[in-house]
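[job 0412] stage=fold_complex status=start
inputs:
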Amino acid sequence: MVWDWDLFVEQLTSTGFLEAAWTTVWLTVVAEGLAVALGGVVALGMLSTSRPVVAISGLYVWIWRGTPILVQLLVLYFGLPQIGIRPSVLQAALLGLVLNEGAYIAVLLRANLLAVPVGQSDAGRVLGLRRWQRIRLILLPQAIRTFLPALGNQVNSMIKTTSLVSVLSVQELLAHTRDTVSETYRPFEAFAVATVYYLAISSLWNLVQWALERRSDVTRRGGRRRPAVPAQLSRIGAP
Amino acid sequence: MTRTATRTTPDGDFLHVWGSKTFGSGLRVLDDVDLSVPRGSVTVLIGPSGSGKTTLLRAVALLAPLDTGCVLLDGRLHGYREAGDGHRVLPERELVRARLGVGMVFQNFNLFPHRTALQNVMLAPVKTLRRPRAEVEEEARALLRRVGLGDRTDNYPAQLSGGQQQRVAIARALAMRPKVMLFDEPTSALDPEMVHEVLGAMKELAESGMTMLIASHEMGFAREVADRVVFMDGGRIVEQGEPEQFFTGTVGPRVREFLDKIL
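[job 0412] stage=fold_complex status=done
writing structure:
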């Protein structure tokens, strides 16, 4: 028999795959969450008025965007013990994902901060707002709104990037799939199950992203109170 | 409006800006200008695009400080300190506070799109003057009523017309209780039918005794409201005088040529 439906369904509903999928989900959420925090700090660092801070932020982004994440993961897990630091498999995996993703988030956030019209900053300045107040109260809320679609993309990508930590034998979806194959010698069914889970997870994320973007849409929020928003005015910052 | 009672300089010198500024490209955008605005008066700056009107306003607002010269406001150095035989602009950290005496309204309104009209007006008094929120809200509502937007407090900028947005911007600047209000071509981004509502708010403000410096080509408004018209060209103040002068023709050829184009 070429394709075994019973085996497919059995594996699809097995606790092993469910647990592995859950590992993929929480790795994605935790790594992306920490990466956004790290990337936010680095983005502000890149826009800092202090040259050393700009240099350090730039150096970090340069190194982590310029090398393969697979290499970074291997260096963290196998290289660090050489200098006396022994991270657990999970620690190395998370650290690798966060440091890599943080560099991309930093660049994205920086771009979105710079894309806020310069007049917004001028308005804040004549109102006596300090630099940090302008960033926090005026620039960041607008930058985050335009950053959300890009973040959606990043999370989507992260769901699949977590499969790389299988090289450190973290039991996420890919590692579990390969273990299953080596037991059953039926790769097609097992990888089909993994495919279904990956698609399910990213579809779930698409829904979350849709809700987030909807919530952050300022005109739509106001529109509930006063529905008549002329189409040409419904884009933020258009005038 | 509350006004400071102390009068340390003669009225002719309530706001006094003089000096020069050169951009990085080597362009001399302000070339030895010298402008005085008496307390409670309205001065309208006219001149072709690139003549330095906006740069002069931005210098007074301390957004783009002068290279040489300085700004005096209400008898005090405004954003500058004495340095040798001249003046030097304060470091950014201190400029933040210095800017508070001057309100500015921009050509493109520059309202904060993620905040409602009321929140736009309330933001700075709460965050920079640290005044109690309830008191600020009451005053903000009153200011929005004053510019005719009492029923639009909860609207986001994108839900307001250009004229309404600009009036919110005026209220937002007034909420900081400035000594001087600057207007940088406040009506040039507006559809014609919305121009008058903004000019109306500005006229009301002028009648209340606010000191105003306005870059604008609304000559009808200048004729009706301004105490003084200043013509700039190539970074210089070429001519200044009472509005009637600019209409009855007793002006130089360069001004005449410009007026013929816009009138």
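[job 0412] summary: The radius of gyration of chain A is 22 Å.
[job 0412] exit 0
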